């Protein structure tokens, strides 16, 4: 760690000791020793304590990938990196996050070395987001000295775009009518399995889940007989509409996957060809999370998604439909892509920061 420096309190105590010592010498008496000596002892003890503190070793447990607007917990474990160094000390921890995330406004104060430190982070904007580096400021028990070190250790988390329901009527127009019957009935039950990221909440098998410590979902063997639906998305302008494009494309792709329809998705950031299931949903969301503005070289897609600063539109079969209009009609009871394939986020009443 860098050298210990006096805090504001330490400077006050140091100044009091100096002034008290000078007054004591000038007066030729010892009446001020009761102030000077304890202050000197505290300064020496505080400096020695921090001199034994080594650079901490940081292990961060990052939160899961999630949707914009969600909150998740980050856990940081700090311990001395050098054997024989002071094992526990008071400290203030600041885990820096990039501008697409929202973390605690104030440093997390905790006893470093006693246990993990946790805080909650909110996803503000989609994309790959950085957690770290961590800045740790060690303080002696009197608060007279501090030493700051930056632990250059980072992790990443992906924030997915917000997804909205797509009316069933619009989805059915994109593939054969009998495909809905097969995928919706899903009569061929296959097995129960552990919940995987991306599973729809409607597939949770609650009786079995209640008996175990993990979420269990139903898996079906039924697959749609319809071929793939291709989606191509681009922005009308070079620098606007990327967020609207990502949300509209991901919403439609997830809704089709929930219906059991395979999807080919092409966006400015790349393309994926996926089948229904957790892996397919994750691939769609990861592509939508990182896509930017731009055009794509696809002319024969079943659905074109065109976005600009005013929103996004679906173009299919010679007609154009505004995404906002579809969203409004879906609010009347239509089913579609769930906003999140995850279990519900923890309630907001939980503490934002917890130092153990």
From TrEMBL:
<feature type="domain" description="DUF58">
    <location>
        <begin position="192"/>
        <end position="289"/>
    </location>
</feature>
<protein>
    <recommendedName>
        <fullName>DUF58 domain-containing protein</fullName>
    </recommendedName>
</protein>
<feature type="region of interest" description="Disordered">
    <location>
        <begin position="323"/>
        <end position="356"/>
    </location>
</feature>
<dbReference type="InterPro" id="IPR002881">
    <property type="entry name" value="DUF58"/>
</dbReference>
<dbReference type="Pfam" id="PF01882">
    <property type="entry name" value="DUF58"/>
</dbReference>
